[in-house]
Amino acid sequence: MNKWGLWAIVAIVVIIGGAVYLMSNQQSAPQTPPVTESTIVSPSPTGEVKAFEVEGKPFEFSVKEIKVKEGDRVRLTFKNTEGMHDLVVEGLDVRTKQIAAGESDTVEFVANKKGTFEYYCSVGNGFHRQQGMVGKLMVE
To answer: Which terminus of the chain has a smaller tally of CB atoms within 10 A, N or C?
Structure first.
């Protein structure tokens, strides 16, 4: 093999190695969750956010009743103190992630229709809900 052939092979290896290195060090774009009706937050008429913190432990929420007005922007922070739980608001398409003890999750939404909506823990195929892990969100 002549001198130029050897340099060509070295150049090709360097170019390919550099390309592989650059591609492996590129950071992937952050994954954005799909936008659903419950994640679209419009300002309430007053511009204020009604914030509530609810703690969960086996078969019980710390807050049994939440009252807001139609059109209010609502922020629910769910903190799990024991076990594995979530918080689902039936009829409003609002749901936190299922989280372990010591974790929390926050959801924001606009209370866009009047009524009384049960919130509950969906873990255990409804078992937690049946055991009393429920509350009421009243939209006036």
So the answer is: N
Element (H, E) at 25: helix 3-25
pTM score: 0.66
Give me the count of residues in the chain. 140
Closest-CA residue to 54 (of 114, 134, 113, 140): 134
State the Cα–Cα distance between residues 42 and 2, nearest whole angstrom.
71
User: What CATH superfamily is the domain 37-139?
Assistant: Cupredoxins -  blue copper proteins (2.60.40.420)
CB 6 within 8 A of CB 13: no
pLDDT tens-place string over residues 66-120: 999 999 999 999 999 999 999 999 999 999 999 999 999 999 999 999 999 999 9
Between 56 and 27, the higher pLDDT residue: 56
Residue 50 buriedness (CB in 10 A; 0-12 / 13-18 / 19+) = middle
* pLDDT at 45 (0 to 100): 54
Residue 135 token pair:
């509350």
The Cα diameter of the chain in Å comes to 86
